[in-house]
């Protein structure tokens, strides 16, 4: 869906991007991971031409974006930024309606779409539609920012550290909303973050950027596995990385048959990280798995699956 | 609403005072017993008010037509290098005393309204330029970034995001310009422009302090009234923004 081909970019004397090439498959949620100054935001912004690269080209659905009208291009791509950037003089509903209005939708269609989007991002339309952005909390504002980006139903969504300014609880709520929207819509999402945990919780592809170069790109467990590149190991300690990796593994996949009498019970669909936390909380070395047949996960199985054991 | 009602009452009081001015012979005789004809009768006060307002508001209009586009240009990426030049030109214009501007313009434009208008335009342009530029510069960067990313064209960003957000600052600049212009218009009487300053000049020429006082009184009163009216307008325009703070 998105292809970067030999993208380089200079800001004055700073080489922000160095010959970056990779593709983001249609329908995937790809996370650009890297430290600040690694070029990940600059790369993201070449897709909607907020940055025109000094060399190389970006293909979107097979077409070079450099040949498109930038305004028309941007109206067809959702864009979410860390500071949200809601228009303070316009109501929540008017903010969400920005792109549909630019595209000339009729008022009735816009009103219906605004209602639908507010529900999609978990805000009650009756309560929030006519509020001004200044009256919203940070989490509510970013929900509106997400709804505004999705308003004209763009096939591609670009997100630049969308949840980094939010407190952990709010961030998890928005991550869940994004996962739900991604699963339900099949949109191609490219998202910038410096948070490894967030990358593991959301991504099906991860591209790691280091000093303007693409360090590695691939499925999360490969990229952040035991042989993670130096740049990832610099960003996060190996033990912490191993712990977060557990979040990408389903507990059911490491389960052994048979009951575990007296062990705490893990809900269905839980990850190995949930299993480890439950073991820690109860001082147990095994947890039972909710389900039809009796199954359980042991600490040894968990360590084996994580790949961090011996 | 109550503030608007008060303002309405004050405007009525002002108009009543203008109507009463030529009829208050006894009051002014008591104040200035040595003056034989203490009330200004040469022209109707309403005629003077009309041409005074026309002159000062036309000047603000012309100044706005120059300064607002200049302020917009100075805040564009391509126009940023003009900013110091523009600031210097408009500051120079304002540092010239209006009397001097009128005097300089007299041989070029002749007697009457034209030299006055020139002085007023020069005078009102700087506050408008400053307000436009600083109002536009204060627009939050994140809103602009979002507007660009959502696909608003440069003109749409200006019309739909920047100018609405700069409005409170723009209105306060307009308020300064109008007040300044209305108060300064009186100077135009020197060049023969008909305005509320005409009785002042006439009084000075004929040693009639009653005329001077009447002209000064109504000029100042008018300037204060307009300042209040524009303040009210700005407050109303800002009330939506006020909800943000609340």
UniProtKB/TrEMBL annotation, chain A:
GO terms for molecular function, please? ATP binding
Q: Name one Pfam family in it.
A: ABC_tran
Q: Which family does it belong to?
A: Belongs to the ABC transporter superfamily.
**InterPro entries annotated for this entry?**
AAA+_ATPase (IPR003593), ABC_transporter-like_ATP-bd (IPR003439), ABC_transporter-like_CS (IPR017871), P-loop_NTPase (IPR027417)
Q: Which residues form the ABC transporter domain?
A: 2-236
Keywords on this record? ATP-binding, Nucleotide-binding, Transport
Q: What is this protein called?
A: ABC transporter ATP-binding protein
The record, for SMART domains, names: AAA
| Highest taxon of source | Bacteria
State if Heme is listed as a keyword: no
Is-annotated flag, keyword GTP-binding?
A: no
TrEMBL record, chain B:
Q: What is its main location?
A: membrane
Q: What PROSITE patterns has UniProt attached to this entry?
A: ABC_TM1
The record lists the membrane-crossing segments as 44-73, 112-129
Please list the coiled coil stretches: none
Q: Where does the record say this protein resides?
A: Cell membrane
Top-level taxon in the UniProt lineage? Bacteria
Q: Which InterPro entries match?
A: ABC_transp_perm/SBD, MetI-like, MetI-like_sf
Q: Membrane topology per the record?
A: Multi-pass membrane protein
Q: Which UniProt keywords apply?
A: Membrane, Transmembrane, Transmembrane helix, Transport
**Pfam families of this UniProt entry?**
BPD_transp_1
CDD domains given in the database record: TM_PBP2 (cd06261)
> What are the ABC transmembrane type-1 domain coordinates in residue numbering?
49-234
Concerning its family, UniProt says:
Belongs to the binding-protein-dependent transport system permease family.
UniProt-listed PANTHER family: GLYCINE BETAINE UPTAKE SYSTEM PERMEASE PROTEIN YEHW, GLYCINE BETAINE/L-PROLINE TRANSPORT SYSTEM PERMEASE PROTEIN PROW
Recorded protein name is ABC transporter permease subunit
High-level lineage: Bacteria, Pseudomonadati, Pseudomonadota, Alphaproteobacteria, Acetobacterales
